[in-house]
Amino acid sequence: IIEQGQPEHKVTTTCAYCGVGCSFDAHMQGEKVVRMVPSKDGQANHGHSCVKGRFAFGYATHQDRITTPMVRDHIDQPWREVSWEEAIQFAASKLKGIQQKYGKDSIGGITSSRCTNEETYLVQKLIRAAFGNNNTDTCARVCHSPTGFGLKATLGESAGTQTFDSVMKADAIIVIGANPTDAHPVFGSLLKKRLRQGAKLIIADPRKIDLGKSPHVHLDHHLPLRPGTNVAFINAMAHVIVDEGLEDKDFIAQRCQTDAYQQWYNFIKDSRHSPERTAEITGIDANELRLAARLYANANNAAIYYGLGVTEHSQGSSMVMGIANLALLTGNIGREGVGVNPLRGQNNVQGSCDMGSFPHELPGYQHVSNDLLRDKFEQHWQVTIDSEPGLRIPNMFDAAIDGTFKGLYCQGEDIAQSDPNTHHVQAALGSLECLIVQDIFLNETAKFAHVFLPGSSFLEKDGTFTNAERRINRVRKVMTPLAGLADWQATMALSNALGYEMNYQHPSEIMDEIAQLTPTFSGVSYEKLEQQTSIQWPCNDENPIGTPTMHVDNFPIGKATFAITEYVATSERANRKFPLLLTTGRILSQYNVGAQTRRTDNQAWHDKDVLEIHPHDAQERGIVDGDWLGINSRSGDTVLIAKITERMQPGVVYTTFHHPESGANVVTTDNSDWATNCPEYKVTAVQVNKVSSP
Ligand code: SF4
């Protein structure tokens, strides 16, 4: 695809990169995309875009696309190209054989936050109805699963509370563990607009991010905390507010559970949460923290935005609950300009969680152990559903190594590159008897696969994505699937081959089924999406056009709950052997493991991952810019190029993971969030030394 020529027609669809969910008009000549133009009607982007959505769509017709199904009996054999029918029968027969030999729970599947809601819904249905177990999980496991857990536990709903536009009414803004100008650029621009109008800004991040250095933006407080100390920091913020009597007493009395608040109040009042005591843990200057807490508490409207720097920790869920505590404490919930706002990484992280991909929850976060809720799905699907939660992704890897988990269907996710501790993941994948990979490229995971089902890009299918503000946007097909089938059709074929009949003619029928079974989606239909352009859930009889701001009068649980969030240091510690802490992130021009953006012209802007290191740490090791560096951790070793920068604080180094050869996840650890198993990507103790070559 190249940007040239005059369009013959245009089709409005949704960007397949980040969780902002920008709408684009694909200008078409026949089935060729001439250019992507940000849509002025897009309710998340209002005609704006970034370099990914605007220019990085050529991967869809890249020569690396695999368009023919392939199979092989062993992973050391070459691939054999076959018809769709043969590939599906091959996969079904392998999965049935595994279940006969090892039992029904020996197989499972992983859904993708890059696929549509309808495709994700079908995969979890396939697993529950055709596989007969709850061994379904999503790549959101490794990014925002703590958001789902933490917000449900405190506010009663696993979702952010605001629209993006709401930031224009915020007077004080805290950005924690997020880099919006690189990772969520269109929202980053909106944020800068509000900051240029004078909103106050607090950034809590181990690294200096561009937002704080933007022209005409004043950074009021940068709190450069040590990686792994988020919970100590958020508790100290709450402690100051309580200690100085800055809490919103009316809001707490009217909207929050009294007993839970009293218990939490006694917990947070303790002097171990004081800024001075916390400074020893976090490295944040006590006075700066005190000023930041006052600024947040005294603002008319104060909003918190956070990213993976919050969730990807062993205390990710505690930190999300700590953020919710802070918002409840100050009454910053339930109106515009405030709230708890997770910035979702991939385009459909929110949707993949909403659609029941988790092993313990059916669509709409309906728990599998609830007889009444399970019965509703059983009646509709005409199957029996297990009442016990199934395996999470890391449990699947462990069970594969133990020899009890033998078959995996992995749709649109490169787990061999994206999941932590690569050696462990590779060992797990290598022990499977049947790995089915469905992707647009022969990715790293496919090296361990027995069946490869060619996937379809977002340009080749109809469906919906749900962005970080719960906005359901339409994805519209602009070209015929290169492999002949869209992903949802391949999933349906596999289900039919396994003996569980699925017969949808169009993704709109899948959405109709979702609406019947999911109370927060009961008012959603493709017809309404055509009329309204987009819908923010909950959309039902009470909220027929959707819900821009959550928790205005009530929480889904009646009154909100404060959660006790005791700080527990991660077991991943720096020591003499591994004296630096490595943290990871993203860059503007690339996207996640880079499978898409590396196959576009964006590659020219960032063709390799580098290691950012503070001048002091570099000097100690005799490192100069451009040196090759060996990075060693307790999990593995890799090599990166040095970039010396004062963005970093001494003792902390940083890299991105957009290129498979950089192997950032070879060094990351097995540590994970206590509640959800979200990996602790953000803290790895490493040693860094000059090496002569890669
Ligand atoms: Fe796509 Fe996100 Fe960029 Fe919007 S901000 S164009 S959704 S990558």
TrEMBL record:
Keywords recorded for this protein, A-Z: 2Fe-2S, 4Fe-4S, Iron, Iron-sulfur, Metal-binding, Molybdenum, Oxidoreductase, Repeat, Ubiquinone
Residue ranges occupied by any 4Fe-4S Mo/W bis-MGD-type domain in the UniProt entry: 8-64
Keyword Glycoprotein: no
Tagged with keyword Oxidoreductase: yes
Cofactor: Mo-bis(molybdopterin guanine dinucleotide)
EC identifiers of the protein: 1.17.1.9
Molecular-function annotations in GO: formate dehydrogenase (NAD+) activity
Similarity comment: Belongs to the complex I 75 kDa subunit family. In the C-terminal section; belongs to the prokaryotic molybdopterin-containing oxidoreductase family.
Protein name, as recorded: Formate dehydrogenase subunit alpha
Organism: Thalassotalea nanhaiensis
Whole-protein residues included: 244 to 937 of 963
